[in-house]
Write a structure and sequence with these properties.
By secondary structure, this protein is mainly α. It contains five helices and no strands. It has one domain (3-7, 16-79). Helices cover 56% and strands 0% of the residues.
């Protein structure tokens, strides 16, 4: 995990550490492809689907300024079970 990703996620409190790990993965992917769409940044369908599921997770607080659950709502097929 990049140092900046660790710093950004250190202040986050999640009910499950897997959610914090997923946030780190998403931030790392997005940081490596700044300006790209989520599917391009994630590079494959499994990672993209995991990111959309993270954004739609009820246990994830959307109080952060950069966090926007509209991403998942705009792509409803991405969060459906396959």
């Amino acid at each position: 995990m990049d140092i900046w990703v660790g710093r950004e996620s250190d202040g986050c409190a999640f009910p499950d550490q897997r959610l914090k790990a997923r946030l780190g993965t998403i931030l790392g992917d997005l940081g490596g492809k700044i300006g790209e769409t989520l599917p391009i940044a994630c590079q494959d369908w499994a990672a993209t689907k995991a990111a959309y599921r993270f954004f739609s997770n009820r246990r994830v607080d959307d109080g952060w300024p950069f966090f926007d659950k509209r991403i998942a709502r705009n792509h409803p097929r991405a969060v459906q079970s396959s």
